[in-house]
Amino acid sequence: MKANDRVFVVDLSERAFLAEITEVLEDQVVLRFLSWQESETELPIRIAIASGLPKGDKLDFIVQKGTELGAVAFYPFKAERSVTKWEPKKTAKKIERLERIAKEAAEQSHRTHIPKIEFASDLGKLLTLMEAFDYVVCAYEESSRAGEKNVLATVFEEIPHGASLLVIFGPEGGLSETEVEQFGKKDVHFAGLGPRILRTETAPLYLLAAASYHFELADSFFNE
Amino acid sequence: MKANDRVFVVDLSERAFLAEITEVLEDQVVLRFLSWQESETELPIRIAIASGLPKGDKLDFIVQKGTELGAVAFYPFKAERSVTKWEPKKTAKKIERLERIAKEAAEQSHRTHIPKIEFASDLGKLLTLMEAFDYVVCAYEESSRAGEKNVLATVFEEIPHGASLLVIFGPEGGLSETEVEQFGKKDVHFAGLGPRILRTETAPLYLLAAASYHFELADSFFNE
């Protein structure tokens, strides 16, 4: 970039503004403030995605597309049926990689918030992370199979703007009975995501798009 | 597969049933009918996706994930700002490849309908294809930028079950003025897909997930 180019800047308090480069020096760039960016690019509710460790590079995909679609955090967790393992020695590197993907996707989407990544190495850690959220939904294939189709819209209808929601997704093999039982002991809503079977990396994108549609596009229908 | 394995069969009229393999012969497999599959896995409205030819393997991605999310057809079209070109000689091969991807994704999702693929080699062909649809929506970035946020939900609210909807998406560089002008002459609804900038391959997935949420999960809220 060079003088006269325009840049989109996000400050530490997550306020965004437009600026123009006036000078590029050896170790600094001088900007001229143009205008505050008033358009709100963050979802009205804060949604975090907990994904049972999937195979291959699916987590990269979930973090990239999930960031584009507005997630505020990603918690990969070691699910009972996860085939992929994260060796403790390599965890820091893997997290760094996902952080980089989230940062780039946030910039490309002009988000003001860069999603946080945190690894839950066992079910206990995930249960502890859950405590921080106002609402928890578990996307449950068995619910979809059983034709469940009201929970998600009912929960969305109940969540006030500004509240936080954690959504849990199983790995390819689904969640185990133990996991479902443990979530059931907490105040977790088990929700189906429609009648088609979604892959483990597609389900979080469905959830985030549905939330955007509910809170950002169809809001007036729900609040009538 | 072998005797006693169970298979999911879809007949030519798109009715699905469960069967058991009783015998595997040299050139045929004998099945025993078990039960009709009553769960409906097709979206209540028929959605086709028209994508301005995107770069790289993004079309593979759109077809795979779009099939999982319920699209009934894909129309790649040569948009004015498409960087990728499809040489006439190679078009048939490219279509075959996408048909294979759609078929595999439909099987994996237990869909009863395999999406159709058709290439629109110029704007005129796309305009002709449009005629066959009850509704046409154009996902328009400028609408999103301008804060438009009611069109999609209003159109969804209006579309009756069983109707067909074509949704048009631009390539990476967006739709050209000419294209937008031509669509504007037809009865096309220009809709924003929320405040975050979505990549060209993410926007169709957003649209399909929003439609599933509207018609399959939150239906009772809209019909109150």
From TrEMBL, chains A, B:
It holds the Pfam family Methyltrans_RNA. Residues 42-211 form the Ribosomal RNA small subunit methyltransferase E methyltransferase domain. Specifically methylates the N3 position of the uracil ring of uridine 1498 (m3U1498) in 16S rRNA. Acts on the fully assembled 30S ribosomal subunit. Belongs to the RNA methyltransferase RsmE family. SUPFAM superfamilies: alpha/beta knot (SSF75217). It catalyses: uridine(1498) in 16S rRNA + S-adenosyl-L-methionine = N(3)-methyluridine(1498) in 16S rRNA + S-adenosyl-L-homocysteine + H(+). CDD domains: RsmE-like. Its main location: cytoplasm. This is Ribosomal RNA small subunit methyltransferase E. It is an enzyme of class 2 (transferase). NCBIfam families: PRK11713.1-4, RsmE family RNA methyltransferase. It comes from Listeria floridensis FSL S10-1187. Gene3D superfamilies: 3.40.1280.10. Keywords: Cytoplasm, Methyltransferase, rRNA processing, S-adenosyl-L-methionine, Transferase. It is found in: Cytoplasm. Its EC number is 2.1.1.193. The keyword Cytoplasm applies. It comes from the Bacteria. The keyword Transferase applies. GO terms for biological process: methylation. One of its GO terms (molecular function) is methyltransferase activity.
